[in-house]
Structures are given as structure tokens and as C-alpha cells.
Amino acid sequence: MSPQARSPHGASSASTRVFDALWRNAGPPLPDFASLHPGYELATRRRLASFARTLRQNGFRIGLAETRDALSVLASPLATRPSRLQSALRALFCATHSDWERFDEIFMAFWRGRHMRTAQTLSGAPADNNKVSGRRVALAEAQQGPSGLLDQAARGGETTASGQGRPEGASPAENLATTDLRHITDPADIARAHALAARLARTMRARIVRRQQVRSQGRRLDLRRTIHRNIAHGGTPIELVLRRRKHKPLRLVILLDASGSMSLYTAFFVRFLHGVVDAFREAEAFVFHTRLAHVSPSLRDRDVTRAVDKLALMAQGIGGGTRIGESLATFNRWHARRVINSRTAVMIVSDGYDTGEPERLGAEMRRLRQRCRRIVWLNPLIGWRDYSPVARGMQAALPYVDLFAPAHNLESLAALEPYLARL
Amino acid sequence: MNRETISDKLAAVGYVADRDIATALWLMEFLKRPLLLEGEAGVGKTEVAKALAAVHDAELIRLQCYEGLDQNAALYEWNYQRQLLAIKAREGAGENADAIEEHIFSERYLLERPLLAAIRRESPPVLLVDEVDRADEEFEAFLLELLSDFQVSIPELGTITATSIPRVVLTSNGTRELSDALRRRCLYHYVDFPDVDREARIILTRLPGIDTALAHQVARMVNAVRKEDLRKVPGVAETLDWAATLAGLELHDLRQEPEAVHETMMCLLKTHEDRTRLTREVTERLLGKVA
Question: Cβ of A422: how many Cβ atoms within 10 Å?
Fold first, then answer.
């Protein structure tokens, strides 16, 4: 038992006794971080503060208000039974389902000193936790690769410095926009193409949003304002007040194929992805090869280079075939309900070489089609001379695709924008 | 009211609580925070709010959220027909415009919608904001503001402060990510499908006439069906329908009547795809496992 726990205060409440029990094997006390609730025992406050900090390190969003409330819970009759206390703190500290699922293990590990894998503590954090200090990110990455989405990527380790110091904001290079992405080899050109991709994505995003606003003038009568304004006319509605219809902004979901056969294009599309997702709330990005990974959280990293590197690392160097069907199944089952609404366009960027069964791909495409508004399939191979979509997977998917378009150069990407704006 | 009382009262009103919900409900009271319930459709999130209202013997005010829900539908609206009539009548009596305006924007012409109703009750009601994830972000922000200040301002009438603070329960099916601010404001409880034992108790509570053994068999069977790869996983309401059907057919042992079991499975499976997936063979396999 730690020395602080054996409180000298005579008024040792029932909750203190529970705490004494909880603290057994709980490691050395950690430094105090705030005096939140004067009058309550210092040791308790410390333990709770460090528990809150442990949770925070695991990606829980816990503010001072929650910690303060937790202290009052400890002082309440509820604290007389550890199991009750546990469920109370769970209700208080959790904010999402993933918090909810991890809470008990962390609670046990902290208060009872039960064994918990280190990886769990450090890197079980949700991927969207990008406001944390660099040190912790480093820890998490060392544990299991960027954002813990694809464990294979972890093997890449620290080999990510390539993108740093990449020149930004190059002058408009018209010819670059039409050159096939495969044929850009000069590093300076690559950098310029990346910058162009990012800028195209940004303008596309901006234009989608702007058109939404121009089109959103509805013709519904606003009765409340009409009556208010026409009282002077004896209530006869002479001046009409109209209400503009509120449109939900278009949502774009991008599924990027990062398999070996796409490797020549992946880097550019990753850049493009970042441009679209960055700061644009209604966009979600996924990367797939043999499995599917949700990458929007990593892409929302303010640091462009870091975000793109993280993703490039996930996308690169993965052998094996592409399982488009299976990846789509994962998407349909676990993500579709959350990220797709009636105004969602799904953009699949893939060459359509699927090593899974084409029937599976067809079935999943049909499901996806029922949920979303449009499916756009971008295929870099269309730009090649003499290409026809004969791959069996591509054949199975085509009936459900609304727009099958080339994506072998930057111009072809930009050409999509008017189409998306019309959705 | 302490936690034991809540848990006893939940049982008394016929709500079969899971281990932690009583604590969460007590905590709501203690910390004066709203409770956010998440979980699959059909796990009984709405039931929690109903039970809470029954426990406190309070009125349940329900706001069903949907895409495009705005303040007019959620907070208040003016009664336009009456206003127009009043304008005509008073104009005839020769009143001036200012006086008419004063009159027609008074309490008499105000139509309360759920949110306004919830803060103007004498005794605190339970406010259920159902499927908050269906409403848009603007509404969520507005709701957050209301939940922290418990006052609303009506431009024509002034600020209305809550006469009693409602107990607020929000539910979400996870069709959209809720904002961090709203999540932080709330206590959180994830409602899972009940385990076999609890589901059996739910069946026994709701269908008092049913055979105990049958109730347990049904609960086990539904539990097995939920593990199949289905598009629409059957909820508790479906379980109850099915149990009632089986009881109505006077079945006592599912194993004896695989045919009837398969035929009545439509109570559980609500899409064509799921119906075709659970073939006779699958039903028999599941029955073999659970019975």
C-alpha cells in the first residue's frame, strides 16, 4: 500500500477504504497536477488526476469539468463499492464507443495493477488524436506504425524523411497537368506535380462549396417573418419573406487503391486526397489494398508533409493482390452507415485488378450503389492507349458505376469537378 | 434518491436493467448532466428514457430528430392562423399597428414545441432527444447551448429561463459523428444487445404468460441469429414479437417444431436478403446449437 493511501485523517470514509483497496499494487504515486477540490484528500486527488491523465494518454477527451465531477462521485455514497465506482467513472469519462470498450481494461490496469499490454496504453489511442505532442506520436508510431491502422506499415519504421523540405507553391506548370503521372520522373517535377495536385484539390473543394450556396435559394414562404413584417399592412401579406432551402453540403468519400499495380500513381493521389480532406469536414478517405483503412484522421494533420508521409507509408510497399471486393465489404459493413448520406458521392480510385472473386465485388458494388448518390470510378489505365476495361473485377463493377473516368493526369482529375458540382 | 432506489424502481416499472444503467441514471441526477445513449437500432435506448420517466414519475417529452429539423419544429412556433384573425379583428376595432404587434406576439399565440415545453414545466420532465445524429450540425450546436444555459431567447418575447431543469436523455444510432463538445457535455452509456439471460427476463416481464423454458430458448436462438451476418440485426422488439408469436402458436419446445420456427422467423428478419440467407438448414443448425 502506498504511504499516501493510509490517510491519517480520522474521518476515513467508506470511499477512502475502497480506495485503499483499489490502490494495492498500483505503482508509485504520480505528481499532482491540479488542486481541484480543496478539502478532499490530497492522495485521492492525485490518484484520480493521474488516472485521468492515463485515460487522456489513451485518447480519451477528458477536461477539468469531468475530473471535478469524478471527485464528487468519489465523495458520494456510490464510491462504497468498487464495481459501482467503476461503472460511474466509465459513464463519466467515456465519450465514444471505442472509449467504452477500452475503459475497463485501463481501469483494471490502473487501479488493480492488472497486466495490460504496453502497446494498448500507448497506441490504442484513436487515430484522430493529432493534437498530441510529437513525443507521444513518436511513441505510438514506434509501437505500431502510423495511427495504428496498418500493422504492416510499421515495418517501414523511421524511413519517412523523404518528403521533408519539399518545395511548395510552384508556379503553374501547364504541361505537367497533362503529362501522364507515370512519366514524371524529375524530382523537381514530382514536387511541382504534388503541389498542383494539392491546389487542384483545394479549388475543387472550394468550388463545390460555393456552388452549393448559389443554388440554395429555395422558394418556401417564411410565415413567421412574413407576418411580422406585414403587421403594418393589417396582416395582409404584401411583402413576402422567403426562406432559402438549406442544403447539406455534398459529401465526398474517396476509396483509394494502394496496391502494387497502382504504385506508380499512389503518391499523387495521396497528395490529392490530402488536399480534399484537409479542412473540409464533409470528406472521408479510405485506402485499401488487401484490407481497408480509414485514413481521414491522419489526413487532417495540419502538417502536410507529415500527413502525406504517414499515408504514403501505409500505402507503399505492400505486396499481394488487391482485394477490392473484400475491402468494399468492410466499408459497407463498418463505415458506410456513418460516412454515407443521401448526398454522398463515392469516388473509387483503382485500376480494377482484383484478386478476389468478381461476384463478390459485384455484390458489394450493388450494396454501395443503394446507399449513395453517385459512384465515380477513376481508373488511371483509361488514359493508356488501347485500354478497355476487360479485367473481370472491373467488368463486375461497371454496371453500378455512374461515371467511369480517366485519372492518369492532373487535368483529368480537375475535369471531374463540374460533374461533382451537379450532384 | 440513491442508486438502490433507482434500481428497485426500474424493476418495479418493468424495466429489466443491465448492470450499469442504474448507476448511470443515478449519476445523471447527481451531476446534473445529460445522458447520451449509443447503440445499434433496436437495443432499447428509447426504453431507458421511458423507464427513467417512470422512475421519477415525470412526464416524458420526446423530440424525434430528423434531417432538416429546425428551431421552428423543435423549440416554438407562432400560431399564424390565430395571429391573422387577431390582426383583422383588432384592425376593425381601430387599434394601431404597434398595439396589435404587442398583442399578437404574446404568450397566447405561442405554440410550444418539445424543447420549450421541457423547460417550462412545473416539475422537471424527462426530455428524450431521440436519434440526435439525424439532425444537422447547426441543430446540435443549438441543442448544446440550450443544455448548458437552459434558457432560450424568443426575439419577439424576450428570454425564457427554465422553470425546472429537465432530465435529458439523448440517443444516437451513429449515422453521423456527434461533436466532441456534445459528447463531453454528456454522460455516456453504450447500450448493447441484452445477453441471453437478460433478454429472457425481458421476455418474461413483457409476456407474463409465457413458458419460462420457451423464453430462454427464444433468447438463446435470437442471440445465435444475431451472430449471423445479417443486414438488419433483430432488436429486442423483434424478439418480443417472435416470442409472442411462438407462444400464440402454443409451442413449448423449439426443437420439436423446426418447421414452425423457420416459418415464424419473419418476425426477426426484416429484409429479403436476410430471409434468403437464413435458410431452413441454417435455422436447423442454429436450433441444434441453442436448444
Answer: 10
Rounded distance, CA A275 to CA A197, Å?
8
B227-255 pLDDT, tens digit per residue, is 888 878 899 999 999 999 999 988 888 88
Nearest-by-CA chain B residue for A367: B231
Please give the radius of gyration of chain A, using alpha carbons only, rounded to the nearest integer. Answer: 27
Q: Is A377 helix (H, G, I), strand (E, B) or coil?
A: strand
Residues in A touching B156 (Cβ below 8 Å): 228
* SS3 assignment, position A379: strand
Task: Output the nine-digit C-alpha cell for B40.
Answer: 445499434
DSSP per residue over B116-128, as a string? HHHHS-SS--EEE
Work out the number of other CB atoms within 10 angstroms of the CB of residue B66.
11
From the list B23, B83, B136, the residue facing A91 with the nearest CB is: B23
DSSP assignment string, B241-252: HHHHHHHHTT--
Answer yes or no: do A95 and B68 touch at CB < 8 A. Answer: no
| B192 Rama class: left (phi>0) / alpha (psi -120 to 50) / beta | beta
Q: How far apart are the first and last CA of chain A?
A: 65
Report ipTM for this prediction.
Answer: 0.83
Length of chain A: 423
Q: Encode pLDDT of A245-285 as tens digits.
A: 555 667 788 898 887 777 777 777 887 777 777 656 678 88
Q: In what order do the strands lie in the sheet with A403-406?
A: A292-294, A283-288, A251-257, A344-349, A374-379, A403-406
B130 reaches A (C-beta below 8 A)? no
Question: Model's pTM, two decimal places?
Answer: 0.66
> Pick from B101, B177, B190: which is nearest to A338 by CB?
B177
Share in percent of chain B as helix, strand, coil (round to 5)? 55, 15, 35
* A328-345 residue pLDDT tens: 888 888 888 888 877 788
* Strand intervals (E) in chain B: 35-38, 60-64, 76-78, 110-112, 126-130, 151-154, 158-161, 167-172, 187-190
